[in-house]
Write the structure tokens for this entry.
Amino acid sequence: MSLVTSQNISEIHRLDDDISKEIITNIQKILAEDDINFTGNMSKSVKPDILDGIRYVVIDSPYATVIDKGMPAGKNVNFDALKKWVEGKLGVPSEESTNVTLKIMNKIKSTGIQPRFFVKKALKMVIGKHGVITIRKQRQKKSRLEKFFSKATKMLNKTSRIMKKVGKTSNKITNNLNKVDRRLRSYG
């Protein structure tokens, strides 16, 4: 039997904080390694949060979901945000950026945006390092009386199955004897 103490709760909160920090670090690492985050704004938008006592990692960036989950073909993206990306990431001068942005926008509309799954990768890194936490119920030991009744129930069930088999076999034998008796009477 375990008691919930203030020490236990503070330790749980510390572990929650450590896991949140590790998830944030992993997300920022993946964003940098996969060259997803050229301005650094998405990395800066990854923060821990607490709502109703539950700890979350929040990515407060308007385009994070699109990058993480992708976008199906046929949808439009924000022209101004894409133009800023074209100028910053691709280094296209502002006089040419409108034309390049339109071409990229049409490409996105026709083929969509492939998902990057950076959040899933970050979570897998944490799970790979620490494993999955499971809480198992401890079995209570059965008393001698419970063990006796458990064995008795198993024996009764087994006896019942055997009796059913004996009954089926005796019915088959009786049916066969009746058939033999009928044939002998038909000859005689």
The chain has a mean pLDDT of 87. The longest helix spans residues 144-187. The CA atoms of residues 160 and 166 lie 10 Å apart. The first strand starts at residue 46 and ends at 51.
